Input
Amino acid sequence: MNLLNLGEDLDRPWMQKIVGEIDNSIIRVVRYYGEYPMHRHNGDQFVLVIEGEIDIEEEGKLIHLDKMDFYVIKSGRWHRPIANSSSLVMVIWKKGIKTELKEK
Output
């Protein structure tokens, strides 16, 4: 499967598609655009930029990812993705992961 082709029909910000599963993990392709709310998960999250570029704000630090860069967000870390232009990202995390939004 080609990841770029899998993302062709993701035409709205934060729209996503499950493209596979391995062991106890789910592989998603997500269309990032704009600023997602600050949140954290009860499991690690793998992020790979397929197309475009994104920033990940993680507990006061800004991590910039270009095309084909990846980053692992450790469990429990407050973070949010920011995409100033439409970007395609692969995200992998365990099944049943819980997300907690940070209150303002």
Helices lie at 3-6. The first strand starts at residue 16 and ends at 22. The chain has a mean pLDDT of 95.
